[in-house]
Amino acid sequence: MSRPIQVMKFGGTSVGDATRIRSAAAIAAETSKERAVVMVVSAMSGVTNTLIAAATKAGAGDESAAETLARSLQEKHHEAIGKLISDIEKRRELLSEIDTLIERAANYCRGCAMLGELSPRALDAIAGTGERLTARMAAAVLREMGHHGVAFDASELIVTDEVHGGARPLAGPTRTKTLAALSPVLQDGGIPVVTGYVAATAKGIPTTLGRGGSDYSATILGAALDASEVVIWTDVNGVLTADPRMVSEAATLDEVSYIEAGELAFFGAKVLHPMTLRPVVERAIPVWIRNSFEPRLAGTKITHTVQPTPQGVKAVTATRDVAMIAIAGPGIIGVPDIAARIFSATASAHANIVMISQSSSQDSICFVVQAADAVRTEQALRNALYEDVHQHDLEHIKVNRDVAIVAVVGENMVGTPGIAGRVFSTLGKESINIIAIAQGSSEYNISFLVESSGMEKAVKALHQAFGLGKREKSDGTRTVAQVTT
Ligand code: ADP
Ligand code: ASP
Ligand code: MG
Fold this sequence. Notes:
The protein has helices at 18-31, 47-59, 65-84, 88-115, 120-127, 129-144, 171-187, 214-224, 258-266, 278-281, 338-348, 374-384, 386-390, 419-429, 455-465; strands at residues 5-10, 36-41, 149-152, 159-160, 191-195, 198-201, 206-208, 229-234, 255-257, 287-291, 300-303, 315-319, 322-328, 353-358, 364-370, 396-400, 403-409, 434-439, 445-451, 470-472, 478-480. By secondary structure, the chain is an alpha/beta fold. The strands form 5 sheets. It has an 8-stranded mixed β-sheet, sandwiched between helices. Strands 12-17-19-18 form a 4-stranded antiparallel β-sheet, sandwiched between helices. The protein has a 4-stranded antiparallel β-sheet with strand order 14-15-13-16, covered by helices on one side. The longest helix is centred in the first third of the chain and has 28 residues, at 88-115. The N and C termini lie far apart (57 Å). It binds adenosine-5'-diphosphate, aspartic acid (ASP) and magnesium ion (MG).
C-alpha cells in the first residue's frame, strides 16, 4: 500500500536564508522516513515585496527598476546557494537556473517600463518569481542530503480562474494535473518541492493566489493528493490567542476548529491565508501550524473538533488592511434595488466584502472591503450609481481607509450569554469608539469597525478582559489568566 502523504509548507522566514533552507529540508527529509512528503515553499522573506515594488516602479516608467531588481535577487540567492551547495558542477547548474528565472522577471519589468504600464497579469508573472527560486534551491539541498528532491512549478499543477492577484483553484483539473505529475515521484520515494503562491489558468497563464497564498497552495495540493495531513511551518508556535506582535502575552492554542481558524484568518490573523482551510474541510484533512525555529513543539492542530473554552472567546484578531465605503443620501430610502445595485457593482469589481452594516434609518449603507479592493470598488460604484449621484438622490460615496476591524472569535460563543456586553463594556472603558458592528448569525465571531488608531488598544483590552493570556506556573506548565470583570 502507498504511504500516507504529508504536505508541508515553509513560509518566508522558514526559508529566509541558507541556514533556514537547510533546516526546512532537514525537516522534510526526517519526515520522509515515515511518510511520503510534498514540500511547498514560499519566497525567501522580503523577496515578494521586492518583486512587487520593482514591478510597480517599472509600470510607472522607471527603466532602472529591472536592473536593481536583478542585482538584489542575485545577491541574496547567490549568497545562499554558495553556502548550500558544495559540489561545484551542481552549484553552477543551479546558479544558471536561478539566473534565468531572475533574468525573465527583469525582462518583464523592462517590458512594463517601456509600456509605462503594469497589468495584473504581468504583475502575477513577476510576483511569483521568488517561489520559483526557492523551490529549485530547496530541491537541490535535498539532493545534496541524498534525497530525490524534484522542483515543480505549481503553474503546472494548480489550475485557477483568471482573477489575477487573487485567483481561485479549479479542483477537478488541479487534481488531475497534480496526481499525474507528483504521484510518480512520490511512488519513487522522491520529495517533490512545489512553489507556493503561484498557479496558472487553464490556458497556462501564470496567476497568484493572493498575498500569503502559499498556505493555500499547501491545502490545495493536500486535497488534490488526498494527503493525511498538511503542516504549515512558520515563525510562531501555532495559532495564538492574538497576534504576538500586538499582544506579548498571547498564548498558543493547542487545538482550534476549522471554523475558528477560518474566522481568525478572515479577520486578519496573518498566520493563515483566509482561504487556506477551504480545500481540506470537506475531506477532514487536519492542518498543523508549527514553528520551524522550534520543531520540538507540537504546534496547533486544526480539525473539525474543538475543546470547549469556558469563556467562549478563544482569540482576538484585527486588521488595518481594510477600507470602509459609505453610501448615503435620501435616495436610499425606498429604492428597492439600491442594495442590489451596490452589491452587483461590488461583485463586478471582484471586491472581497469583509463586513456589511445598514443604518436603521435606511439612509446609509456602509460596508468594508479589503484595502486592496477599495479603488476598484469605488470606481465600480461611481459608474453604477452615476445617475443617482448626479440627481442628488445620493449625497456621497465615501471611502475611509483610516479604519480597522477587530474580531473576537470562538466556536463556543454560540449560546454563551454576555459576550457582546463584555466586548462593548471593555471598549467603553477604553474610550474606543465603535463605527460599525456585525455579528454573523453563526455567532462564531463578533466583529466591529474602529478607527485604526484604536485597534491595538482594543485588541489588548479584549485579550485581557477574556483572560486569554498565558501565565507560566512554577512547574513550567501554562495556565489561563484570570478573567477581569
Ligand atoms: P509565513 O511567512 O510563515 O507564512 P506569516 O508572516 O505569513 O508567516 O504569518 C505568521 C505571522 O502571523 C506571525 O509571525 C504573527 O506575527 C502573525 N499572526 C497574526 N495573528 C496571529 C495569531 N492569532 N496567531 C499566530 N500568529 C499570528
Ligand atoms: N511569497 C508570497 C507573499 O509574500 C506568498 C507567501 O509567502 O505565502 O505573499
Ligand atoms: Mg504567510
